[in-house]
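Write out this protein's structure.
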Amino acid sequence: MSFRSLSVRACDEAGVRLFVVKQNRRNQTLQLLKKTMTSGRFGRIQMVNVNVLSKH
C-alpha cells in the first residue's frame, strides 16, 4: 500500500482532515511577480489574493 493511501486511511480512522499543500517558491512566474512587487512597482500593496492553477 502506498504512503498516500496509508495517510488517507490513517486520517479517516482518526477522524481528521488531510490537506495537501504545493509550494510554489520555485515557480518562475511567481518569482518574477515577487521581484516586481518588492521593487515597489505597484506602490503600497494593501491585500493580495492568489490562485495558482495547474494543467496537471
